[in-house]
Amino acid sequence: MPSLYKIKQMIKLIDNISEFFGKLSAWLFFFVGLIVTYEVATRYIFNSPTIWVDEVSTVTQIWATYIGLAFALKHKDMIVIDIAFKNHDTIARKIVETFSLVVIIAFSAITIKYGFDIWLDSTLKGHHTDTLLGLPKWFTQASIWIGFLILFAQAIVEIVKVWTKGIDPNEELEMIKESV
Fold first, then answer.
1. What mean pLDDT comes out for the span 80-100?
2. Among residues 106, 117, 123, which one has the least CA distance to residue 144?
3. Mean pLDDT of 78-88
4. How many CA atoms lie within 13 A of 50 on its CB side?
5. Are 53 and 133 spatial neighbours (Cβ–Cβ below 8 Å)?
6. Which of 23, 24, 36, 32 is nearest to 61 (CA)?
7. Are 147 and 69 in contact (CB under 8 A)?
8. Which residue of 25, 72, 129, 131 has the lowest C-beta tally within 10 Å?
9. 177 three-state secondary structure
């Protein structure tokens, strides 16, 4: 049985990984905005479109989306309907939170398994996109199982937090104030 110290260190590590990939995701979306702006300028101002912006922006958006999932879960930025469970300290609320996280874990596990299988198949067979760049398909397909692997780990951490720290009503209140 792992010690409490090791469990806390693992939780901190997973939280830090989610933070890192969440911030990387934001920067990747910013990068997409820059290259799409560049494409618009070269196409309409200089009448010289690029051949690479479409595929690079698509692949970058795919990576940014999948690696940002755990960050969204950690910061409770996923869609939440809590009409029936407004009291944060009840056992019913903890059970409902845990159930929703278990569903995320189950979906993530299935996605990791099949995503990895597809990625491995593409890698071994050397599949490429049918575009001018001809990027290897494994590069895009890796984002799925990697992103869901991070989400899987973060969901486990969130279950531990629900049962050890509880659900912080101030954190949710701050999020509501920020969105208004």
1. 78
2. 117
3. 69
4. 15
5. no
6. 32
7. yes
8. 131
9. helix
pLDDT tens-digit map of 14-73: 999 999 999 999 999 999 999 999 999 999 999 998 989 999 999 999 999 999 999 999
In the prediction, which pLDDT does 135 show? Answer: 93
Taken as a whole, the chain contains a residue count of 180
pLDDT higher than 90, residue 112 = yes
DSSP bridge pairs for 128: 136
The phi and psi torsions of 136 (rounded to 5 degrees) equal -65, 135
Q: Read off the tokens for 41.
A: 């300028």
DSSP string, the chain: ---HHHHHHHHHHHHHHHHHHHHHHHHHHHHHHHHHHHHHIIIIISS---SSHHHHHHHHHHHHHHHTHHHHHHTT-S----STT--TTSHHHHHHHHHHHHHHHHHHHHHHHHHHHHHHHHHHHT-B-SSSS--BHHHHHHHHHHHHHHHHHHHHHHHHHHHHT---HHHHHHHHHHH-
127-164 tens-digit pLDDT: 999 888 899 999 999 999 999 999 999 999 999 999 88
